[in-house]
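Subject: Predicted fold for Glyoxalase, 107 residues

User T.R. writes:
Posting the sequence so we have a shared reference for the thread.
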Amino acid sequence: MPQGEEDAARAFWCGIIGLAEIEKPEALKPRGGLWLQLAGADLHLGVEAGFTPAKKAHPGFRTAGIDRLAEQLNAAGHPVTWDAAIAGRRRFFTEDPFGNRLEFLED
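User M.O. replies:
I've generated the structure tokens; pasting them so everyone works from the same file.
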């Protein structure tokens, strides 16, 4: 993520996606970024000088209630693109506020 964009990251990941923020260790706070809690894992958003968004490589997040999430993202100005390439799974792609590609899937 770009430097100084923690509030935009919080609005997206906590406000729209619904993840809880985890407090970073004191030694890492000066570096910026944001840590988030997932089911059984953490998501660490680090600040990168000369940031360029990831347009192809991406994380995939398994979710329940994918239609509601798609509606929330669209309403917040993050368009979703549905993809039916995987049998038995509903999924879509979107971008975070910084242009990083994200995938959300539901079995």
